[in-house]
Amino acid sequence: MYLLSKIELTANDKIKIISFLSDLLNNDPLKTQNSDALIQYFNHDCDQEIFDFHLGLELINLNYQKSFTFLLKHQLSNRRKILLFSNLAIIAVIRLDLNELASYINRMGTIAMEDYLGLAINPLKCLRTIFAYLKYGVIKDDCFKEITQFCFNPPVKQIGFRDNLADEVLYLIGVITLKICQNPKKTIRFIQVLDKHYRNITDISNGYNFLFKVIMLNEYLCIGKKEEAVKIYYSLQNCFDGDKNQVTPFMETLFNTARIMISNYCEQYPYMATDARVIDLIVDKMDANLFKVYVQALLLKDSERKVDSPVYKQMLYDYKKTIRQNQLYPQLFLENELFFESQF
Fold it and tell me: Would you kindly state where each structural domain of the chain is located, as residue ranges?
């Protein structure tokens, strides 16, 4: 396994290998015949290279939980448990599975608070804030002070900024938390800090670059900086149209989300039917209800849309269905509450 972590693989190849290894470890004959050897192997913490091999934003996919089968068998340190549970929790957020999210928050809550001190972002506080917003529409502000401090006093010389794939989930959790504030300038500042002090956001095809480019694109559109947003979109499109083996389901989902944002900004009704089909692509590639509901709300709250059209009515129906099935806050991501009060 250690040698495997040293091989240069595309993200999609890595997804396949990790899935295969997870299936292999859960194979009953293997567990029966080599139980003593396996117990001895897993009776310690895993190597850093192996741990990082299994984690990374671009690896998120429909079966990503399977990638943790190997890691969970080890006697992990508390720091690694936090990172692992953070990955599982963010999958629950993307799926909008609040019961599962609450379960991982509770498990993370059993870990001593001292173990969170060395992390650049406190994932437990952020996840609790995300849960409260998704479930009740309540914005808990206790974690925002820490994120603000992170932006103005980043942990440059502390162990908080470790350049490895396992820690990237912390920044994903941090930026989703900031999105709740609906303050684009704060979100942009957060990403700029990462770009300067953690890792440059480049045109290389990986989950980290795709994620923060799409969010920057969204925030630039929100503050009217259309040229910057369009420039980001074309850089994403170039990556997406390049080596398809480098573009994972998570990255494709992000790109489709960016497509909807750009076409929505054009404010032309004919694009709405196309956007509706793109939303279906998002769901097909990943169980990504978070992105689905967000872009649906983006389209629905545009008062210039033809609200009596079949496409609009279908999208509103799909939005309400997702909200109801996942027991979410009824007006999630919608700002014009008076307008939608009559629709619900």
Answer: 1-76
